[in-house]
Amino acid sequence: SYRAGPPSTRMLAVCAWATAIGLVGLGGAVRAVATVTAGAGPAWFERTFAAVGTAAVVLTAAAFLTARWTRPPWFLLALATVPAAVNVGLTVGVL
């Protein structure tokens, strides 16, 4: 039996939002690596950055797993945006 996937427009929008989250995360990660490599960050920074970044990745992946339904992917992507923004804030605040 064939099960239809989510509409193409929904998948395109989910991919676009996930790409934006990934680019924000990448920008923060580059600065975080520079901070950790230089030894300029506080002791808690590396673990906190990794944990919050992992939360963003897991929530973004969950959005793809729920793309078949109407509301859950948007809710999960909105939740994933929060830790991505927190990571940028942590990185900017530490430097």
Description:
This protein starts with 7 loop residues before the first helix and ends with a helix. The protein is elongated and about 55 Å long. It contains three helices and no strands. The chain has helices at 8-38, 45-65, 72-94. The chain has 95 residues and is mainly α.
Summarize the topology.
Elements: H1 8-38, H2 45-65, H3 72-94
Helix pairs in contact: 1-2, 1-3, 2-3
N-end to C-end Cα span: 55 Å
Strand content: under 5%
Helix residue percentage: over 70%
How many strands appear in the DSSP assignment?
Answer: 0
Backbone CA Rg = 16 Å
Name the structural class. mainly alpha
Mean pLDDT: 93
**Order of helices and strands, N to C?**
HHH
Largest beta-sheet characterization: none
> Outline, from the CA principal axes?
elongated
Q: Tell me the number of helical segments per DSSP (H or I, 4 or more residues long).
A: 3
Describe this protein with a few key phrases.
mainly alpha, 3 helices, 95 residues
Question: What's the quick description here?
Answer:
The protein has helices at 8-38, 45-65, 72-94. With 95 residues, the chain is mainly alpha-helical.
